[in-house]
Specification:
The chain is an all-beta fold and 92 residues long. It contains no helices and six strands. It is elongated and about 45 Å long.
């Protein structure tokens, strides 16, 4: 789902760094459909690339409040080009 929110270009390697914050405020009923809403929380320069943190909320059709609120973090290293590594998707 995250690939629909963020595109990382010219990266020679990407690492799922983990989660800063994660909560599960509500259970997911069986058979529910889920959807992800996410935005870029921060982009920080690191040695050889960038570290990207997202603000993500997962909702389901059967519950009024989010079923998961998380801040996933990933790191991408560049290929020594001068192009930006991360761009928010705008074609959605």
């Amino acid at each position: 789902m995250v690939l629909q929110v963020l595109t990382v270009r010219q990266a020679s390697m990407a690492v799922n760094y983990g989660l800063n914050k994660v909560r599960f405020p509500a259970p997911v009923p069986v058979g529910s459909k889920v959807r992800l809403a996410a935005e870029v929380a921060s982009v920080e320069d690191i040695a050889g690339g960038v570290q990207i943190a997202l603000r993500a909320m997962v909702h389901c059709t059967e519950v009024d409040k989010p079923i998961c609120v998380a801040e996933p973090v990933s790191a991408s290293t560049d290929d020594s080009s001068n192009r930006p590594l991360a761009n928010r998707r705008t074609d959605q």
